[in-house]
Amino acid sequence: MTLNMSADATLAYQELALCIDGAFMGPADRDAGQDVMNPATGKTLGRLPHATAADLDRAVHAAERAFADWRRVSPLERSAILRRAAALMRERAESIARNITLDQGKLIAEARSEVASCAEHAEWHAEEGRRIYGRVIPPRNPDVRQLVVREPVGVCAAFTPWNFPLSQATRKISAALGAGCTLVLKGPESSPSAIVALARIFHDAGLPPGCLNIVWGEPGAVAQHLITHPSVRKISFTGSVAVGKQLAALAGAHMKRMTMELGGHSPVLVFDDAEIEQAATFMARFKTRNAGQICIAPSRFFVQEAAYSRFLDAFCKAYGKLKVGDGLATESQMGPLVHHRRVEMMDSLVEDAVARGGQLVCGGQAQAGGGYFYPPTILTGISDDARVMREEPFGPIAPIVPFRTTDEVLRRANALPFGLASYVFTRSIQTATQVSNGLRAGMVNINHVGSSLAETPFGGVRDSGMGSEGGTESFDGYLVTKFISQAFVVPS
């Protein structure tokens, strides 16, 4: 195995810490904590400190105090800090990316791409945050002035996942700070290095103490404490549907605003008039990204009968023999899963599919040796009631099944309660229009993958969540609307 020399394994892993009111506190400062593991080797990388209940209260109070000043800071100054943060991300990209690969597992090239994307998101929010406008409503009475202004909602609590640790945190932080809010963020305990790096970046960019606070701990306890805290006014969560529903119910009980970016089970609709081989190769490459551990990963492949054999053959050639290994190794084409529970889930889904009569084309068994590696896996001959067709696999399993008509495939694609991303391949404008109108999804990609850009909204419908991140819609969840009606004279 050849390690990438620019990501030399002798370099130190990110020092992990809490960040509260501008102060960083490492493992030596807290009794409770947990080890962080490398999913490619199973070895310990570092120790992550957990916050106490008192720490959580201090973090919220710091954010509340900072909000009183930050909300009044000029949008130009807020923009300048976000732009400085973006520049620091680019300066520190190699060390951040390497640490993401160490604790999360993805290929080093993918980690570098994640850092570059985050710099773009910070810059985009820096610019768009300068254009949070209200409006003037023409009055019925000439002696009255009517204004609509948009104001920051207040202290926010954010919860981010392990699969894109830097990306998901950057989206929430940039939107909240750009809108004039402050926040307490609980990142993923299994891949924390990027979050700590981000906290240090904003600290070095000149963000005032208390505007961004980072805490760690047992997820359920931390969420309960932060969401029910009376000073927290907005919740932003990215994660599973099951956990998202629990947090949404808790937030709703306390009348907290929320943005929920939850799971999906993205259908891929390949029509027989598409560029079949190109579509298969393109989707196979996209499926390998982060070993399929992406909420918008293609996970249910529906291929029209006339093109089914061609698509399957091309997909197998592109996907079935990829080199799986350490994300720092130059020959690796796909990295490990994040922990052993994901490997167990892959085994369970495959066993269920085969037990129901499905055929295993390739893969289907965890690799022996150290690390949480699972090979690219293709399943055929399965019915829509197989677990892999109903449950989000969040891994490198690709079920590929045929369909006949457009109406049929729309019914099957929409049969699940999820509605995040979807993919369509066709040369027909009529088919593309019919399917994009018919799919119940927050994002429809036709003949390519066009989601996750800084300037475009990212979000789902139905069980896949509410609200959007990215695009001009990004700030909506962090702003409240205030109507001001002022008479120049008191009516007689």
Structure commentary:
The longest helix has 21 residues, at 108-128. 37% of the residues lie in helices and 21% in strands. It contains 14 helices and 20 strands. Helix 14 (429-438) links the parallel strand 17 and strand 18. Mean pLDDT is 95; it is low at 1-10. The chain is an alpha/beta fold and 492 residues long. It folds into two domains: 5-262 and 466-480, 3-Layer(aba) Sandwich (Aldehyde Dehydrogenase, Chain A, domain 1), CATH 3.40.605; 266-459, Aldehyde Dehydrogenase, Chain A, domain 2.
Return the average pLDDT rounded to an integer.
Answer: 95
**C-alpha termini separation:** 86 Å
CATH architecture of the largest domain: 3-Layer(aba) Sandwich
Shape: globular
Number of strands: 20
Show unreliable segments. 1-10
The structural domain count equals 2
Strand percentage lies at 15-25%
Produce the secondary structure layout:
Layout: E1 18-20, E2 23-25, E3 33-37, E4 44-49, H1 53-70, H2 75-91, H3 93-104, H4 108-128, E5 135-136, E6 144-152, E7 155-159, H5 165-179, E8 182-186, H6 193-204, E9 212-215, H7 219-228, E10 232-238, H8 241-253, E11 257-261, E12 266-270, H9 276-288, E13 298-304, H10 308-319, H11 340-355, E14 359-362, E15 377-380, H12 387-390, E16 397-403, H13 406-413, E17 421-425, H14 429-438, E18 443-446, E19 465-466, E20 479-487
